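Hi F.,

I've been meaning to write this up properly since the lab meeting, where we talked about keeping a consistent format for the predictions we share between groups. The idea is simple: the sequence comes first, exactly as it goes in, then the structure tokens exactly as they come out, then a line or two of notes. No screenshots and no reformatting. I'm using this chain as the first example so we have something concrete to point to.
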Amino acid sequence: MKILLIGGTGTISSAITKKIIENDWDLWLLNRGNRSGDLPPGVNEIKCDINDEANTAAKLNGHKFDVVADFIIFNTSQAERDWRLFKDRTKQYIFISSASAYQKPLSNYLINEATPLANPYWKYSRDKIACEDFFMAKYREDGFPITIIRPSHTYDEKRIPLGIHGGKGSWQVIKRMLDGKPVIIHGDGTSLWTMTSSTDFAEAFVGLTGNIKALGESIQITSDESLTWNQIYEAIAASLGVPLKAVHISSYFLAKAGPYDYHGALLGDKANTVVFENSKLKRLVPGFTAKVRFDQGLKKCVEYLLSHKESQIPDPEFDVWCDKIIAVQERALKEMQG
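Output, unedited:
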């Protein structure tokens, strides 16, 4: 198969790139070429900015693909651009949506592809829903060969998945743990969450590429393992070999306190209990099951972070914010207790 990935160097798409190369398929990446040094041998590149539609169309001249997948669409104008570029160039077009598009608050904690799409808390999710609506309309009206994939919280070995962190990644939370400082867990830490390894995601994704039964369908790709946020943070601390000192703070309070934008990411996503029912994926990709248990995948994340200094990016502003908001809660409790 000849496959084009738009992006191809992110958390999810990097694992997919490696998996496709393992299958010895004809892989092409369309991006600006800023991270070409990270690519495995055998990848063909089309270097351009897809937002320059005319130049992209010229670069694509003469190309036809079995599958095109775009990992960097976030609004309908980008969806419309891709439709114009690829409606006559591919047998299957895969749009990467988001499981955050599912109904918030949920009427049922168990989620499958029939769960309504509605998220009043997060514009990111509403934009993904609008893109889904656009592509499905083109499928119904013109036979555009769309497949919609909804990832949930997917991680790779370079990123430790967290509920609360600053704008510079996970290191400052890890450093707080290593320094014996308290870390914030949103809510009471008992809501359920699902983490999915990027290698498991790639396995399922490849099973959907070129799959005629996936055309016109929406499919979620997640692990079947559900953990509380307390368990997630306990696993992180255990991997670091330190005790967990957790402070639980209301998600609503965190969203309102600022300056970090936790409104969508918490109230519209991580503060909700989610358990995914993945029978549709398993029907379309017989034999698939997520293999990487979270605590095992997490150990690789911790090993990578501790052995790669360039990933240890300090975030002193977030560190100060954590201390401040924890102190505010402690003062309020003391006042209420007399």
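Notes:
The chain has two domains: 2-155+195-221, 171-194+228-274+293-336.
The mean pLDDT is 95.

If this format works for you, I'll send the rest the same way.

G.
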